[in-house]
Amino acid sequence: MNKISIVGAGMTGATAAHWLAERELADLVLVDIVEGMPQGKSLDMLQAMPIIGKDVRVTGANEYAATEGSDIIIITAGLPRKPGMSRDDLLSANAEIVGRAAEETLKHSPDAIYIVLTNPLDTMAYLTLKKAGLPRQRVLGQAGILDSARMRAFVALETGVSVENINCYVLGGHGDEMVPLTRHSNIAGIPLKEYLTADKLEAIVARTRKGGGEIVNLLKTGSAYYAPSAACAQMAEAILKNKHLIVPCAAYMQGEYGLDDMFFGVPVMLGRDGVERIVEYKFDDDEQAMFDKSAASVKETHEALKKLVTL
Ligand code: TXD
Hints:
By secondary structure, this protein is of the alpha/beta class. It has helices spanning about 10-25, 35-45, 50, 90-110, 120-130, 145-160, 190-195, 200-210, 210-220, 225-240, 285-310, and strands at about 1-5, 25-30, 60, 70-75, 115, 140, 165, 170, 180, 185, 190, 245-255, 260-270, 275-280.
């Protein structure tokens, strides 16, 4: 059986475990600093397995030793946003937490592939890669599947067509400057622009960009977790089943799209080795301008990180 360890057993981490257990992909370990909480949640989840008929062992711990020999490490430890906060406001607190999680887990699982969720996402993935000194194949950030799913859900609400027929691609950094590619998005192969008026499409794009903030404002005490953790489970499945699935993920750029030494949301082919390939779209001028703006914003957060920690 494969093994997946999740560092941070809060809303996103525990819900990721839930989705992963449903997929019967791997034994699961939840790690958190709160005493008893990961143990309690995992025991509860373990007791759900006979009911849903999945042979998955779920354990909880406060120590990293429990993550020994993991195939995948998911990092969701850290603070979430509260109303009025941007993802970048979380930088200094989360950098310390994620840096330590990356270093400690690597000691016990030298071959693991990392999926990072903690915000500010692109920069926390960058930190993980640098702190752990890993090749780029083995570090991914989750953002693009979620941002694209938000757009898909809004298009489904507007058109009444099955979510399965709706293909949307949102690239770029995981922030308000993200890049929804309406020209590449379609419903069963028909361009979105033929289904929706320009106004409707624009409203969907705007709601997608602020999709996370809309939920933060409703919840008031935290941020979204069902959809982010479902996205994370999809990535883990693509890796463990060696699916060669192309999905938007944050990956380390080495010249692709003209970007270097930074994480950014691009279409990535996922397989057993992690990042197998980065797919390059051809952009028109407007798309390129959005892409550049988003990249500049992510670069800025990377630079802020470098002032805080030695990488
Ligand atoms: O799509 C995405 N990338 C995201 C990102 C979508 C949802 C949430 N996203 C980010 O993940 C969010 O902005 C936060 O930075 C993290 C965690 O969000 P979550 O909503 O799960 O926050 P919680 O419920 O507060 O859980 C965080 C847990 C909590 O149980 C803490 O005790 C724990 O992290 N924590 C730690 N665990 C282990 N080790 C350390 N040092 C630690 N510090 C805090």
